[in-house]
Amino acid sequence: MKKDESHEIVALNSLTATGIEKMILVIRDKQVLLDRDLAMLYGVETRAINQAVKRNLERFPERNCFQLTRDELPDSLKSQIVILNESGNKRGLHVKKMPFALTEQGVAMLSAVLRSKTAIQVSIAIMDAFVSMRHFMMQNGGFVNRLSNVEAKMIAQDERIFAQDKKILEHDQKLDAVFEAMDRGELQSKGLFYNNQVFDAYVFVCGLIRQAKKRIVLVDRYVDEKTLAMMLKREKGVSVTIYTYDKSKVFEVDLSVYNAQYAECPIEILPSYGMHDRFLFIDDTAYHFGASLKDLGANTFFFSKEDFTLDEVLKKSNEIAKEKAQNEKC
């Protein structure tokens, strides 16, 4: 046996080891998996896959998830329809729900909405199978020579998207670790949230607020009623002070209504000057945020735990406040 032939057999064996590649179909010039095959891999019912997609449509654009037409049905499904027709079952004449097909990018998003360790591991294995199949086809039979320039660019783009999706999966794993640590009462030192993860970011910050035992201090130029609502998550007896530059009439009304209703735990608002960054102090632990609390998750942002004290953060602001007070007296 020639060396090249031996290499091809080894590559093929590694590819067929998982059996996933047998399920991968090419429909609309895309490599896809059908919803029923995905359900089998994840160990759930097909309707669970479809419900997860329908509840998160913004994560599944048509280029990554689409419903097949009758002409696009695989032969295996067409044969099932023929058998039903011959048996006299009228339901076989019409498919009640055509199957959905997901690309590897759709699979990546599916693991994010299913949110389980099994889903993440299965999705990584599926995407690895997609990539392995492309590599195998490119390395054998002069496949590369038969590709047009457009097709070659599409494969390169798929590789970049795969790498990005894998990073998203890794981020989801880290995010799960963050929430698990919060359940154990641990505070994380740093993390990253991507755009459109508004609810995840909101839940995370509320989790931090719940950890406070004595006080919460927020330094943020812009706050609104959403920020005030977050503070309702704190334990009884925990004080809240917000240093902000926001002096709008709308916020003043929101604050007065809030303090009137929650008179037993009012929020104190103090001015901040020359402040750009946002800090959240949970007792004596300082967190630095790359966005205002009211906007968390709208865009990608980073947070980190810092060694700064509140006095250090407000040092310059307090100096400006004193100067303003002296000038007003004069």
TrEMBL record:
This is ORF6N domain-containing protein. InterPro entries: KilA-N_DNA-bd_domain. Residues 24-113 form the KilA-N DNA-binding domain. SUPFAM superfamilies: Phospholipase D/nuclease. It holds the Pfam family ORF6N.
